[in-house]
Every structure is written in C-alpha cells, then in structure tokens.
Amino acid sequence: MPSRESYEASKEEKSLVQKAKREANQEDMLAAALGMRVGTQKPPATFWQPLKLFAYSQLTSLVRRATLKESTPRTEKVHNFKVHTFRGPHWCEHCASFMWGLMAQGVKCSDCGLNVHKQCAPLVPNDCKPSLRHIRKVYSCDLTTLVNAYNTARPMVVDMCIREIESRGLKSEGLYRISGFSDSVEEVKMSFDKDGEKTDISAKAYEDINIITGALKMYLRELPVPVISYDAYPRFIEAAKLSDPEKKLEAFREALTLLPESHTETLKYLMAHLKRVTQNEKFNLMNAENLAIIFGPTLMRTPEEDAMTALNDIRYQRQVVEALIKNEDVLF
Length: 332
Hints:
Layout: H1 4-33, H2 45-70, E1 81-84, E2 106-109, E3 115-116, H3 143-150, H4 156-168, H5 182-195, H6 209-221, H7 233-241, H8 245-256, H9 261-278, H10 281-284, H11 288-299, H12 307-326, H13 328-331
Antiparallel strand pairs: 1-2, 2-3
C-alpha cells in the first residue's frame, strides 16, 4: 500500500501536468488569435510571456467598449476624435480589429480616451463618457463634456458663481454691467482650471462681487458651443421675430427642445437667477432689458461667419434673452 508521502507527491505531479496542459492550450489559442502558426517545435516560455501580457492588456479596452454599448448615457455626447499616433500595437475599440501602421494609426477621443480606426469614427454612437483624466481645464471646455466628467447637472462655474452672487450681490448697483478688475477675473479663471470645485470665490478671497460676475460672463463667452447652441440658434431668432405673444412663446418652447440636456439645465438655472436680479431692480438698477443687452451676445453666437448677419442678429439676440428672463416661469 503506497505511503501518504508518495500519494501526495503523485497528486502534486498530476496537478503540475494539468497546469502545463492548460498553459499549452492557452498558448495555442493565443497563437490562433494572433494569426500565428505554431509547429511541433514549441517556442520557449519567454516567447509567450510578453504576448500574454499584451493580449490581456487589450481586454480592458474591449470590455469598456462593450459596457458603453450596453449602457444608456445620461447625456448624449459626440466623441471628440483627433488623429493619434499610438505607441505599440492597438486594437480598434469599435470593430476590435488591429490598427495597422507606425504613425497616425487611428483617432482618439480627447474627452474619454476611446481609440478607433479613422473609418470607424463615423460609426461610433454618441456615447462619450468624459473622464477627468482627459479634462485639462474648465474654461473653454465643452459644456456637456464638463458636466458628464463631473457628473453634475450644470457646470460648477455656473453653480458656484451664481450661489456666491445671490448670497451677497443681488443688491449691488450695476450688477453684471460693471466689470471687475481684469487681472482678478483672470485669476478666478485660472483657479477654476487648476482646482475645480475647490476654488475659493468667497468674499474673503474676492471682496468685489463684480469679479465673480466677470468670471461667470467669461466662462459663458469662452464656451466652444454657446449655451444656446448653433443648431438651435436659427429657431430662437425666428421666435424673436414673431409678433403674436402666444405664438412667440410656443416657438420658444419648441426651440428649447433642440438644446442638449446640459445646455437646457444651465439656461434654466441662469434665467431663474437673472429673474431674481430683476426683482431687485430698485437697488441694482438692472432690469430684463439691461441684462439681455449683456447676456445676448454671451449666450448666443451666430453660426454664420458673415459679419453683417452677426450684426443684424444682435437686436434679436437681446430680444431672445429678454423674453427668456421675463417668461422664465412658463418656459422652463
């Protein structure tokens, strides 16, 4: 009868044999996946190790792509693809095919890091989920990109500045009309770009409320796509030109449905704030018309490059914002 020691040794030997068989099968599958032919002469173990690590490293991108396909994004966003040169081998995260070449093998989304072929880019759904790792600044960043990256309803700059203004500035004369010291406004901008939500804009840091209003206006002006987006712009201008009050309100409601969700939320929050500013007109001397003159060109920009068109639209931009402020309670 075999001893206990010999039994344990035999069991351990069988386990090692089974492990070797599993590794051999994995190597065969890996070779097939890479399109390699392996003969009877087995390559050394050192040949397989880097290939295994490389193949496994690609699983994360494929799993991420599958997750994107299965989940419905909170806010639809187009990918911001740019031509990219990848170091080392890469697979397309859309079609899962190899990306050939030494330079400019494909495109990479600068907001979420998705890597795809150039020809696959138009086929990728609008499911960009920005990552904070790829967001380098707050100002001049696409509005939808920013709110998706921080998982908020509105940009932090809008929320924080409006809260600060309403806490200590609603009765300040010439609110939004008077400009703050430009160097201080630039300092606030740099703080948001660097520290994000940790930026200190309290009265202790900036006693002059006009610096905070200036920082908010600068943020809105520097958006690559205005709060009232280029796609919706013509419908808002058409609505402003209508003379019948009921038809005008209905036209504005229809125009608002064309805005991305994050833009609508931002516009709604801003208009409610400006309405509260007008309710303190006795102190700040700012009515809806005055505010519309300031915020018209800030919230709206013509998609046309023609200077005459832009000039002619200025009065309609003012009328749009004035109507949104006055009818904020029924339009949103």
